[in-house]
Amino acid sequence: MVLRAAVLGGGVLLLEILCRLGVIPRFTMIPPSAMAVGLVALLRTGSLNRDLFATFTAVATAVGSSVVVGVLAGMVVHAVPRVRRVLDPLFATYYAIPIWAFYPLFIVLFGLNEIPKIVIAFLYSVVAVIVNTLNGLDRVPRVLLKMARAYRMGPLATGTTVVLPSAAPFIITGVKLAIAYSLIGVISSEFILASRGVGYRLSFAYLGFDNVTLYALILLLLVCVTTINQVVYAWEQTLLRRWGRR
Amino acid sequence: MSGSEGRQAHVVLRGVTRFYDGAADTPRVHALGPLDLDLWRGQLFSVVGPSGCGKSTLLELIAGLSRATEGEIFFEGRSIKGQVPDGIGLVFQEDASLPWLTVWDNVAFGLRRRGAPAGEIRRRVDDALRLMGLRDFATAYPAQLSGGMRQRVCIARTLVLQPRLILLDEPFGALDQQTRLLMGDEVLRVWRETGATIFLITHAIDEATMLSDRVGVMSARPGRFLEVVETGWPRDRDSRIAGHGDFGKLTAHIWSLLREESLKALGYGPAFQ
N or C: which end of chain A has fewer CB within 10 A? Predict the structure, then answer.
């Protein structure tokens, strides 16, 4: 932990020195301290609130729907081996599909609004949840299923009180990936076609050579993503320790 | 049902046979039987036999986890038909503790499933933890415990439901010899204190001899009882019974019955015997 903070702090310090000395031109990058100052100033104006709300609502919707759909789909696919045999190779190659290519289609289908970017983020993340749910379900010890039968538990009770908790560490890995993929999906969608959102503001700053806003937004995204990831990571580690897998 | 010498049969097996469907183009496998057995109420009965003779299959049939192909099994006079009857508790060879629950919550699992009142759960779980010497580990997670202690958690989780018949499927199979002996003592103590009938599957002849009132010796597949050996031990016993003069004789007798069957199970021919 200390070492990680030292590496991170050292990197930031090095960047600061290189920017201040002009080794990295200001036109290319501003010093990290200027990014932080720029971010605080930007947040104080309140002009970012609408964009933050749009982006994080879309990310939350995409993550929530991909987790619910992914876990349920994973359970269904796991329960029907024939379906599993058909879908497994497709899951394996899924991330080779350029989901972005379907963006015009989503605009035609859903209109020029928030839905296409949520759909893209959902499509990016849902398969990660399905695949990790399947991994988790594959690893539920058979003895626990026998134990559930010994307690005369039906399929629903077995699923909710034995199978899902047992598969939880893997499902959490899926959730972690879903957060990352959803954020990528939403931000990149906003970059191309949106009238609000952090991605849109990034694109606007980039096209206007507004380096302060650009790097302030990049810093904001980094802070948000790292914080969310650390929280989920800490949760995952707690579970794994409890499970005796760490 | 009552049996010989006024003893009451707790579990009765009549002509129990189990076949398993083979893989494609292979004949079905005759795993077990036909078996007849009367398991007396309050007795500790062990089953020993060569690997693959159907010991665990037999336990699963009695538990109601699987159905006999032929024959019938009665528990307390009622036929078991592929469903675990009320009053039967199971402990498996593998660690079946739930890693996401504390020891206390693991033990309370079955009572909560039954919807028992909170006060009753607290009392019975505390009793079970005390009985199994786990009181100081109530808030620990299974991963923090040794294999022997995790198995004690599973036994406590079974005991808390006050089963009248406890089925133990090689519960000490993964433990070292010293822990096995001590766990054997625990089982004997629990058996005396609860008055439950215990049906123990084991591959260890000395363990079966030490713990049991009767030992069922099974043949190689399809498993049948070659002999049911009465040990004649007093009810108040522990692992030190191994020092009894008859212990060696009984163990030797069981091994003499088993040796040929074990060789068969390993695929050795008569020349080796």
Answer: N
Return the residue in A149, A237, A246 with the most chain B beta carbons within 10 A, the one to mutate for interface testing. A149
Q: Which residue has the tokens 């002849």?
A: B205
* Residue A118: closest CA among A197, A214, A174, A173: A197
- Over residues A2-43, the pLDDT tens digits come to 888 899 899 999 999 999 998 998 888 899 999 999 999 989
How many beta-carbon contacts under 8 Å exist across A and B? 55
Chain A residue at shortest CA distance from B143: A244
**Whole-number CA gyration radius for chain A:** 22
Q: Which residues of B touch A165 (CB under 8 A)?
A: 98, 100
Its ipTM equals: 0.82
Q: How many CB atoms lie within 10 A of CB A64?
A: 13
| Among B206, B200, B211, CA closest to B254 | B206
Contact criterion met (CB below 8 Å) for A190 and A181: no
Characterize the bridge pairing of strands B197-201 and B44-48. parallel
* Residue positions counted in chain B: 273
SS3 call for A105: helix
Q: Which residues pair with B223 in a beta bridge?
A: B32
Q: In whole angstroms, what is the distance from residue A190 CA to residue A118 CA?
A: 10
